[in-house]
Amino acid sequence: MAGSVHRGAGGGDLPFTDPAGRPTLRTVAELAGVHVSTASRVLNQVSGPGVRSASRTTSERIRRIAQRVGYSPNPHATGLRTSRSNLVGVLVPRLVDIVLATIYEGIEEATATYGFSTFVANTGDDPVAQRQRTEMVLARRVDGMIFGDAYIDGGFLDEIAGRGVPFVLVSRRAGAHPSVTCDDVLGGRLAAEHLLGLGHRRLAVIAGEPYASTGIDRTAGFRAACAEAGVEVPEARVVHSGFDTEGGRAAMVEILAGGDVPDAVFAVNDFAAVGAMGVLRDAGLAVGRDIGVVGFNDVPLAGSLPVGLTTVRSPMHEMGVRAAHLLMRRLRGEQVESERLVPSLVPRASTLGVEVGWSGARGVGPGSGAGAPGSTPDRPAPRTPTPR
Amino acid sequence: MAGSVHRGAGGGDLPFTDPAGRPTLRTVAELAGVHVSTASRVLNQVSGPGVRSASRTTSERIRRIAQRVGYSPNPHATGLRTSRSNLVGVLVPRLVDIVLATIYEGIEEATATYGFSTFVANTGDDPVAQRQRTEMVLARRVDGMIFGDAYIDGGFLDEIAGRGVPFVLVSRRAGAHPSVTCDDVLGGRLAAEHLLGLGHRRLAVIAGEPYASTGIDRTAGFRAACAEAGVEVPEARVVHSGFDTEGGRAAMVEILAGGDVPDAVFAVNDFAAVGAMGVLRDAGLAVGRDIGVVGFNDVPLAGSLPVGLTTVRSPMHEMGVRAAHLLMRRLRGEQVESERLVPSLVPRASTLGVEVGWSGARGVGPGSGAGAPGSTPDRPAPRTPTPR
DNA sequence: CGGAGTCGCGCTAACGTTTGCACCGAACGT
DNA sequence: ACGTTCGGTGCAAACGTTAGCGCGACTCCG
């Protein structure tokens, strides 16, 4: 047992190894004195109708030997024979975006439990790169894909679906393709209700990219809630933006340039909110007192800012996990439906005006519940049946 | 016919396709009226001594047909036959850490130019996970690996090397294994010289995890430079920490608890620095005036903080790119040597005491011209030319 | 005691590529 | 005119698995 490590205790001079010296099924079979097909059946736990397994004793012997020599099936051979690769491709706008990185971590974690591995690629939200990377990943014969960079119009995705590639979307929705998203409309509502409740009436929205359902839905939810409260958000105060700091900065500048200073801003993304806060600060406005700011996602940074950022928390990690499970079900041939996870509002100083301290004031003040940056356990957001 | 999507213009009813309907080499060969071996030779551009290629006309015909039907070789078949997968495995502590994510982006980008794909996995710096994930990736028959989570002692890596797996390290070094790192010792020196030059003498270090060469070398360089200047950094003011905000926070608390307040702190990681700044702020110390703080890496956030963080910039993206190239050379059988890329100091308000404005003073607002002496452009970390 | 059913396992043919070798015609040198 | 060389292809054997089929031996029961 001591030496039962990798590449077998045998010392590397096993019979019938592959070119690299790794044991093959043949190695195991020969050692066990059985035919390779028998070894295969045993190691694959084949069962079911019409299939007969080996005897208990032989099975155990084979398994023991396989274990001892450190046998692991050659995925190329298996893939060639079965034409299934246990591989999934994941496309994201950018992995350096912590939102997507967190989602991806969830995906990777969950797929691994099924024995699947993942290829990730960045597309930078560029349609050309999307096509190109998709082809690349498909050429690897993945069993399915997860897109985190869907365009709302979904033309490209229709095409992929037409080619019979099973996939699910995550974070963003598009058309009728199965997706796992945050309930962004609700998230936008939460933001609006929070601001309205605080008495704000002159609202602005930093709306994100026009092709991403996240920004669209969050904005829509926000405006709907405002409209219901009889508050209008003029077009001039709803501006599109990139999802990063720079995007938020530019959008905020544009809003201020309107000459019509709002008393609160909703940014559909935390980083955009941070950019906006910088601009406001430079403009001499005290965030949290002179003007309220709400972000979206609750990235760890949000609670660590000098002025804690009020934001709508989305269960990023869990979205990844759920998307993975959804894809697995699709691969099994099941008919699946989209899932929308519920967000929650995390109030902090950027709207409450209370200085809770840069450290996030763990457990102190109204802004607590903010949770420690770093480890944001995704609360098991209850799943809402989608009417789609 | 109308749905003549992407599966080749042929219309999808090609002869001799694979189970999924994709064209195989046989499809192409049959259409071109040649043997599959001929098609293979043509499509693989075989050349060299003793190998004869097909005639120009046949070659062109084959290539044209392959293109038309959208042929892409089955990687399982190729991998099985050649026992090379054009796959590399990448292990990182955590992908949500933007430092590692940036490095990974570089790796992915560069490997892709070689026709390689990558598997990434998180290990959370946990030795058990490292082993487990490594085995998982190796079971996929990758051609090589890149470790971004090396422990300084490198026992595990020796083992892997002993098994004949080609790999390189990135970000952290260990033993004599080939690595691509930042010159961390130099980086530590830069930080020290900067602080010493500003007159600081009571220095503290937030040193990161004790098993990571990054923290070790940065700390060593820092202390060496101090020693040369005749300044001692007492052990009590050098404390280990996690590489995240929370780690920096805890470490700073510990340092302050010493009762012996430093006049400057060097954190070996920007996020740790941010955590430290929060604690200092809560303690009533004005960062940049009462106390200087220097971080490491220059993550985008550093320049966007309300008090810009002075930091040592490390070429993260390029480290990834170089690591990828290094591995490729190793795979070709070349003898390779470690590379150390040079860092540079980026002075900001956290040591200079100048309020440059939250937005990073991008030409807007009152804080504008207040650029720091020798101010380096904050944002677009110059992307290193990546050889295609 | 003999036939039917079952159990345990071996045989064999794929899966899609690559590659050493053999073969054939044409050009070439003497 | 006749070997020789070489350019252009075809042949076939792998690579490591899986899965349908079939065959002996054993069990069971009438």
TrEMBL record, chains A, B:
Q: Which key words are in the record?
A: DNA-binding, Transcription, Transcription regulation
Disordered: annotated span: 1-21, 360-388
Q: Give residue ranges for domain HTH lacI-type.
A: 23-82
**Ranges of compositional bias, category Gly residues:** 360-372
Pfam families for this protein: LacI, Peripla_BP_3
Query: What InterPro entries does the record tag this protein with?
Result: HTH_LacI, LacI/GalR-like_sensor, Lambda_DNA-bd_dom_sf, Peripla_BP_I
A molecular function (GO) term: DNA binding
The record's listing under PANTHER family reads: HTH-TYPE TRANSCRIPTIONAL REGULATOR GALS (PTHR30146:SF109), LACI-RELATED TRANSCRIPTIONAL REPRESSOR (PTHR30146)
In Swiss-Prot or TrEMBL terms, this protein is called LacI family DNA-binding transcriptional regulator
